[in-house]
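Researcher: Next sequence.
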Amino acid sequence: MIWTPDNRGGRAPSESRGPATGPGGVQIRCPRCQTPFAAQIINVIDVQKHPQLKAALVAGLLNRAECPGCGAVSVLNVPLVYHDPDKELLLVLVPSELNLPAEQQQRLIGGLVQAIMSQVPADQRKGYFLRPQTILSMQRLVETILEADGVTREMLDEQRARLQLLEDLVRAKDDPAQIKALIDAHRARLDYAFMATLTATAQDAEAAGDAASADQLLALRDTLLQDPALAARMPQPFAPDTTIDDAIERLELLADDEEALAAMAILNRPAFDYGFFQELTGRAERARAAGDVARAERLTALRDALLQQIDRQDKALQAAQQHHLRLIEEILANPDQQAAIGEHLEEIDTLFLSVLGGAIEKARREGNIERSARLDGLRRAILDLLAESMPPEVRLINHLLSLEAPDARRAVLAESAGLLSGDLEHLVQDLIDEVQGQGRTETARRLQAILAEIRQARTASSAARP
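Model: Next structure:
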């Protein structure tokens, strides 16, 4: 049964058992086996109070009922009010399948809006509450929500096409000839954005406890990347011996893929220096002089796009560094530093610790011993607090980073033989890729030295075993 203001048999939203569950349940009959059962529904979504419901709605997971008899899943066409106060967005879904008379529809809309208003203090109610937007289909509701987030209709169409192609590839997973035919037919669409969608879908499946689907999708990804042309279009860190010529040739393959180019800018930021752009500009000029106008324009567009990505990322990094510097000063000024650290623990990441280390070095260079001691004390307090919840491998890496002398690090590694493993090496390599992408070359250099020392310690430990 669907709740409306006229339906006194249902509970009004204000009487519901939870603030997000609306009127509770409806009685339905399974379309497959005809088993009657009660299904729980949600009629009221306030994004500020229950952001997880937005994700469920957009993913198509809301108001679905599984038959206890045969397991068939039914989509329930029920009225729903969606409220996002930050965007002043108030949407009311009245499914056209309900065929409500105009008068009853207006009363239903009024009741749902009142359900939201009853949860908002009177002094926070704004004019948009008087102008709710009526939506007649779930698809249009989701599109309106995403459009308010800056997702255009074209972007939605592109994502639907990716998901359809992904579904086709999954169905063909056991047929190599069909897989190859799909790759050849849709090669241009098998780009970085498609691979990102595939990986995100696999991660969602794993998070939902569907390990089989996750493994299936990751196996499909591995199959696709066996195609050399597709693999070449995936962003990867440059090898240490990559020349400028090799880097440019690799980037030319990604020139039309904005997301892949952005990922390459993050993964290989230190490689994009003055010499790199000088050579890229020179190639464009030589191509134009040789009459190859198309390649000259392509290289020029690649240079401009890459410079734009790097400028955007550099500005974001600078803004994050400034934020961390302000946070450091705020914590230093707090008489209860432990409490202040605890309040901001979620903001303390590797970049924060790097900024803090830079502040310590700056104070030492300026001869400000008192400030450098206070900052160093803050770093130790943060590391001690972080260590309480960190895995032992992460604690070991942080300890090694705090030691300047290679001999001291080797001594720690000798005492930590039980933690030396391939997983530890992969963790350090991931950190190297992360800090290199942020342009933090000194931290990356230290981590590379630590990685080499870990490998040496593992070899020595293996040789010492009987």
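Model: Residues 1-23 have pLDDT under 50 and may be disordered. Strands lie at 24-29, 36-41, 44-46, 64-66, 73-75, 80-84, 89-93, 133-135.
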